[in-house]
Amino acid sequence: MKNITVDKSQAQTKQPGNEYEMHPTPVTIRQSYKGSEKLKNKIVLLTGGDSGIGKSIAVHFAREGANIALVYFNEEQDAEHTKLEVENEGQQCFLIKGDIKNEQFCISAVENTITRFGSLNCIINNAAMQFPEDNIEHIKTENLRTTFETNIFPYFYMVKAAIKYLKSEDTIINTTSVTAYRGSEHLIDYASTKGAIVSFTRSLSKSLAQKGIRVNAVAPGPIWTPLIPATFNGEDLEKFGKDVPLGRPGQPAEVGPAYVYLASIDSSYMTGQVLHINGGEIIGG
Predict the structure, then answer these.
(1) Domain-located, residue 32
(2) Does any domain span residue 136?
(3) pTM above the 0.85 mark?
(4) Which residues contact 116 (CB under 8 A, 6 or more apart)?
(5) Alpha carbon distances (Å) from 24 to 3, 139, 224, 251, 256
(6) Band of the pLDDT at 285, cuts 50, 70, 90?
(7) Segment Disordered: which positions (predicted)?
(8) Is the dihedral of CA 190, 273, 225, 95 positive or negative?
(9) Considering only CA atoms, which of 217, 231, 205 is closest in space to residue 181?
(10) Which sequence positions are flagged as catalytic?
């Protein structure tokens, strides 16, 4: 992937942001990516799947033969476009609109997926929010609560609701972040939730190992998604991703294949692990 020139004047006023408003538009999947039925007939429930990394996951999984139940908040245009892209791959995409902070909604999302497709093979917890603040004293209690209730609580809700439908060789994949490992002075609460996701992944993997259900995670670095213009602007936006060894932000298309690997038989001897896709930043763990 080539470096991108970010229009630093763009700004979005609400999260999680709209992909159709971004300049440049994120790359969802490489034209050269060829599916090989790695996920043929698999049923996947994906949160935050309307845009960014989630959209890339949905399209890659569809190219590999999976049908998608796609959970989104209120990004109608992005969600419909992702649905169209999944259908263009010859697969089904079932849109589920709602707020994952509500446990009952998460339960309903799982049940509606079962009603629509008859089974469930993979849960991908991906949705997230962030509210940058340079000083812990400036973190609003409301934003702190929203960050935790969006970024980690639904991981529990979804798995609790879905676990009775999952069987041996099925998978759970969680989206954490490089900030869980190196920290972030301006995303203290967000980084804390991402650290919790790492611990959740490791602990849940041990809990479900005897059932043959594998649990892994992906820790992206700076990826060009709607969350970025929705939370940064000006010079911060222009500098985004340029401080990693590869010198540029990543594209969603560079992250999606990692989820394919973790959901497929190719990773059959992997559980409790985190894949680091961060432009070359060396971190522990």
Answers:
(1) no
(2) yes
(3) yes
(4) 69, 94
(5) 11, 30, 9, 11, 19
(6) low
(7) 1-23
(8) negative
(9) 217
(10) 190
